[in-house]
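Thread title: Can someone regenerate the structure for this chain?

I was given the following input by a collaborator and told the matching structure tokens would be attached. They weren't. Posting the sequence so someone can regenerate them.
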Amino acid sequence: MRHARRRVVRRVTRLTAVAGLLLGGAMVTQAAMADETPGRSAVPLSAPPSATATGADLVSRLGTARTAGSWIGGDGRTVVAVTDEETAAEVRRAGAEAKVVRHSMNELKSATATLRGAPRVAGTAWAMDYRTNQVVVEADSTVSAADWSRMTKVADGIGGFVRMQRTRGTFTTRLNGAQPILSTGGRCSAGFNVTNGQSDFILTAGHCGPAGSIWFADNQGNQQLGKTVSSAFPGNDFSLVQYASGHAGQGADVVAIGGGKGVRITGVGDAAVGQRVFRSGSTSGLHDGQVTGLNATVNYPEGTVTGLIQTTVCAEPGDSGGPLFSEGIALGVTSGGSGDCTTGGTTFFQPATKALSALGVKLLVSAQQGAGQGAAPSGAPSSSAPHSAMAPGAVSPGSSAPVTSGTQASTLLARLADPRNVGPGLLVIAGSLIALVATRWIRSEQDRKAYREYYSATWG
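Best answer:
Regenerated them for you:
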């Protein structure tokens, strides 16, 4: 019996490896892979969050006149910026660390409002840096010396807590990279699966396409995925793509991170400064970094977007709309930024909570699992706070999830070849599996090389 079990495990492993080979080239998010089923068990990759009061709770209770934001320190403790010793004492009694600063959140907000009221300069961005108690204004390589001088004068008029700095590359939306979801407007990455209770949708970036855009899962336009039914950009940067079938199908609660592996999404929450986060995209795959700012404003060439999450996670064109998450908690979808995953850069994300609230939909998530319990879609958020006190280096993307469950591995090849089960980035064509993999790899390399050659001057 033991030997028979080992043979079954080896067969499942080989079949899963085939799936990983097919899906690894695309690195697309599982959100739109309706044919892939998450496993019925998931082992948490990190310790449970601390019960320490969150910075957001303390800031909300103490008020913006006495505080100036919060973040997660290097030791995992919550740090709250306060304007006086009396408030600092309250923070310490709550179990968090206090840092006395000069400027309150009200002053920081007033500074950003003044910047928004100045003449718009494409290629600039700003965000509150809670840790230095400053508003940081960045300008990319496209901003002229004259525009930079004008913005500097505006900053000088606000006060010395506005810091001006140049950044490499250009602030651009992440469109036109590699596939997995394609329309006449370009190529993007799917984000998270959501529902309004009657129909299922893909949450992705708004700049990917206006309402009415038709999305396909293949270059030939033969495999229609769905249609954009709601879009917000600029101002915000989110949109809904309604599945043509009306349903996301199995695997809706998993985002793929490449190599046939996925991460279960168990809830949605707000990001925190200092938090370690992860992003998956169809061009560059899985990458991690840290949240450096909230409520960031970016002046893209196409328009201004506000209320974004600023991070050190890299991204490249084609990663637009891809998911940002940590510990299995959905945080946002990729908007844009500067740099790439070779030299690094800054990437901004549309907060998921704001998008879901504005669109009136709920995230399709995996239920928290107990012994002997399987995953079940749910609209309820996870009980674990995404910004709980935890050392930034100790967090993980979330619970592991295989591309297919062991009980269904025997039919994996049949399901991959079934045209009814096609997902973005998975091109089902006639011929052998070897030919399919070779075609996907060659096309991906050609697209990346062509893009880099054409835009080498822009991206520096």
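The mean pLDDT is 74.
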